[in-house]
Specification:
The chain is 39% helix and 10% strand. The chain has 15 helices and 14 strands. A hairpin with a 2-residue loop joins strand 7 and strand 8. 55% of the residues are buried. The structure holds ligand 9MR (2 copies) and zinc ion (ZN). One ligand 9MR binds next to loops.
Length: 509
């Protein structure tokens, strides 16, 4: 398709810009479902070379009446899209339900259709290198694989709790609801804490299994060693969740608060322990070069939940870190520090305010014609970066009310749902051209694509054999192949869905 639109549509109030290439003329026609032209707008005279195409834009924001439309220009056209007050509600429910589908150690209910399965990965887990066994059941499978890792779990839960805090009314329950689903993961995370407060980095088999259903993976489960990145993320996430659940389930909240404090005490007495897969373990590494950002995040969340002595610790650490970028990664938690630190009293809160706004301004400066802030290199999971940046921009909007941030945040959503050079809706099961062959073991095993999953998206590093075979010489924005063999461009992941959940929820207000 040569005219790109958000395939799930727009709200009446949104800025609406089509990105176009091909055999165009000077006018964009908006057609209604009956094929009548309801609006004509000029095409920009400025042309931009981007990702191998000569592209122009047309702003059709004047279209505000609810209905179904398509765009036409010269001999090119767009997929149909709607204008509606709530165009994303079904997608949001599916994005949360994805986490239910990822459940480990649970009998998935029949409503999960062909993805229902008996409880998986229920054996005891061996503590790496010992003859000690621990019960570590539950949580979510990380991604297309069946590992369960603390570091990305913390990011996922944090995004969900932020989404809930920003706009709990955006959620319509489906197979699950957001609060119950986040609790499922938190309960599992608690099991990965050792008595001394340290937290095991992950539980997985030694390597990745074939394309089988989860309950068919029967290899021994192994708890990989404690790391301080996992322990810091755990402390932060538990302290954060203790506040969210205080009014929902006070006993659970108290348990999480106690666990957070024990994790903190472990950190205070430990040098950095940065994780690398030990010999014989080949699953996801989630390694890191520093645990300073995890420690700061833990201090900030504990300061908000418990006050002193954590507040002083947070202030000291913050003063040393707020000069740098603030991404919302799985490895770099400074974005969470900046956002969560906004509620700290006095100068600490002000520092975080400046930090968030500086980050948002830097994103605004870098937006390309497709509305995202990356052009040259798109990393593995680039769609997560897009969703993360949308979250940060919405945080800046919530702080200042300045609509430039909101419009930029909307662009991140439009990109993921169709306004991209390959015209993909990167969420499975939605839009006219959804991604549908993900690197996701249950989907491959059943020969059906599970809905509601955000693809990792373009990765210019061509980091798997299928990508290398199909994408040589492609510009970054087109380094994507909808093939279940391409795990570097088309895997799915809990922490790629979660920032999109937060972005969609925030935009629904
Ligand atoms: O399936 C694995 C996926 O979840 C990981 O993200 C990816 C990178 O670690 O690895 C995948 O497993 C592949 C392995 O690395 C190499 N052999 C083929 C596996 C996929 O079938
Ligand atoms: O999301 C991770 C990405 O940032 C890394 O570049 C990549 C290679 O190390 O690993 C990704 O994480 C994968 C994890 O290791 C195993 N489960 C699937 C994850 C998504 O592909
Ligand atoms: Zn499992």
């Amino acid at each position: 398709m040569n005219i790109q639109v958000n395939q799930l549509g727009y709200t009446p109030a949104m800025r609406k810009v089509a990105i176009m290439r091909g055999a165009l003329n000077s006018e964009l026609l908006v057609k209604n479902a009956a094929g009548e032209t309801v609006l004509t707008v000029p095409v920009s005279t400025e042309r931009t070379q981007l990702w191998g195409d000569d592209v122009v834009t047309a702003d059709f924001s004047a279209l505000t009446r609810p209905g179904t439309y398509t765009l036409e220009c010269g001999s090119e056209s767009s997929y149909p899209f709607v204008i509606a007050e709530k165009p994303y509600t079904a997608c949001l429910t599916a994005l949360v339900d994805m986490l239910y589908y990822q459940r480990c150690g649970d009998d998935l209910k029949p409503e999960a259709g062909c993805f229902a399965h008996p409880a998986c990965h229920t054996g005891l887990a061996r503590v790496y290198g010992t003859d000690e066994f621990v019960e570590a059941n539950g949580g979510w499978h990380d991604a297309g694989d069946y590992g369960r890792y603390i570091v990305p779990a913390a990011k996922t839960v944090a995004d969900m709790l932020l989404a809930y805090e920003w706009n709990k009314d955006a959620f319509v329950p489906g197979l699950t609801d957001l609060i119950n689903e986040a609790r499922w993961e938190l309960q599992w995370m608690l099991k990965l804490q050792r008595a001394d407060g340290g937290v095991y980095h992950k539980v997985s088999c030694a390597g990745f299994c074939g394309m089988i259903m989860p309950h068919e993976e029967k290899e021994e489960l192994i708890l990989s060693p404690v790391s301080t990145t996992a322990t810091g993320d755990f402390a932060a996430c538990m302290a954060m969740a203790a506040r969210t659940y205080a009014d929902i389930d006070s006993a659970f909240a108290a348990q999480m608060k106690e666990a957070a404090i024990r994790a903190w005490d472990f950190l205070e007495n430990s040098e950095p322990i940065l994780f690398r897969n030990p010999e014989g373990i080949r699953t996801g590494g989630y390694g890191d070069r520093s645990d300073a950002d995890e420690r700061l995040w833990a201090a900030i969340e504990l300061a908000r939940t418990c006050g002193e002595p954590y507040l002083t610790a947070a202030e000291v650490k913050l003063a040393a870190m707020d000069r740098h970028a603030a991404p919302l990664g799985w490895g770099d938690m400074r974005g969470y520090c900046a956002i969560e630190g906004l509620a700290l009293p006095g100068e600490a809160g002000q520092r975080c305010r400046r930090w968030v706004l500086r980050e948002a301004e830097n994103l605004l400066k870098r937006l390309n014609l497709y509305g995202i802030s990356m052009t040259e290199h798109l990393h593995w999971g680039s769609n997560m970066d897009v969703a993360n940046q949308g979250m940060m921009l919405m945080q800046a909007f919530r702080l200042t009310g300045e609509v430039k941030y909101r419009i930029a945040a909307e662009k991140q959503l439009h990109y993921l749902l169709g306004v991209n050079p390959l015209s993909y809706c990167y969420v499975s099961g939605f839009g006219s051209q959804p991604m549908c062959r993900p690197h996701h073991r249950p989907s491959v095993a059943q020969g059906v694509c599970q809905p509601g999953m955000l693809s990792g998206g373009p990765c210019s590093g061509l980091a798997d054999a299928v990508a290398k075979e199909h994408l040589q010489g492609q510009p970054a924005g087109k380094c994507f192949v909808d093939d279940h063999g391409s795990y570097s461009t088309n895997e799915i992941c809990i922490y790629w869905n979660s920032p999109l959940i937060a972005l969609v929820a925030a935009l629904d207000k």
